[in-house]
Amino acid sequence: MHLRSTKKHWERFARTDPFWAVLTDGERKGNRWTEEDFFRTGVDSVRDELAGVREACPDLRLGSALDFGCGVGRLTQALAEHFQHVTGVDISDEMLTHARRFNRHGERVRYLLNTSDNLRQLADNSFDFVYSVITLQHMEPVFARRYIAEFVRVAAPGGVILFQIPSVSVRHTPRPFTLWPDTLLKRLYRDLRRKLAADPIMEMHGIPRAEIEALLAASGARLIRSYRYDAAGTTIESWGYLARKL
Ligand SMILES: C[S@@+](CC[C@H](N)C(=O)[O-])C[C@H]1O[C@@H](n2cnc3c(N)ncnc32)[C@H](O)[C@@H]1O
Predict the structure, then answer these.
(1) Above 80 in pLDDT, residue 186?
(2) Across the chain, what does the average pLDDT equal?
(3) What does the alpha-carbon distance between residue 98 and residue 81 come to, in Å, rounded to a whole number?
């Protein structure tokens, strides 16, 4: 799916059930997350992640952080409790409208729309911490690879980069045409249902671990560790990558 379509689907998620689209807990579907419970998950995750980061990088600077794929600002708001300035970037205007409404940190937090396959609107060497979770999996790997290289470019020298992405891809696009009548009928039925119900699609992709590690090295970052990242769900094998810009 191209980024234009990805954006279209996330706009629809943001309009209909934004908290659930971010944290797809089955019991909270249909706008059943409370604002308090939802944002508390962000505070807890960021606290735990930063504790791990500080162990590995005790000299982590707390000036500026980037939250790529910030959604409604669940993690951006939590990062602002640790960093002086935080930038949340997202492809969806509607997600960012929610995020701005939930901002409790005034001008210390800014939210930027980015619909391109790069982060050129952000300067080189400008962030002490670059963070992205449950985002890179929702786009074609060709784009995720470009953003990862951009994470390294925008990180300050010695800056810390932490992101998560599954290591395997899940097939969710229609299979090639088949003449088996039952499969064909199922596919037609599913496509028709999607069109009628206008269910937005949440893409799910991954990139093998070795490829990510090579990409980080080629982009100018030193991998500190890669580790199983089950917080993004256990149905698909996911990895976290902690790296430092050289
Ligand atoms: C599952 S939500 C996660 C939000 C946030 N990281 C969190 O954990 O609370 C995924 C977000 O990624 C955004 N997104 C998807 N593709 C993107 C892209 N190419 N660039 C920036 N944001 C993107 C979506 O709009 C959505 O807000």
Answers:
(1) no
(2) 93
(3) 19
Residue of the CA atom closest to atom 19 of ligand 1: 91
CA separation (Å) from 227 to 23, 52, 147, 218, 237? 21, 12, 20, 20, 11
Q: Is 90 exceeded by the pLDDT of residue 76?
A: yes
**Domain carrying residue 144:** 3-245
Residue 198 pLDDT greater than 90, yes or no: no
190: CATH: 3.40.50.150
CA of 89 to the centre of ligand 1 (A): 8
Please list the residues that pair with 155 across neighbouring strands.
127
Report in angstroms the alpha-carbon separations of 216 from 18, 35, 157, 168, 179.
31, 36, 14, 18, 43
Q: How many domains does the chain contain in total?
A: 1
Give, in degrees to the nearest 5, the angle at Cα 229 between 199 and 206: 50
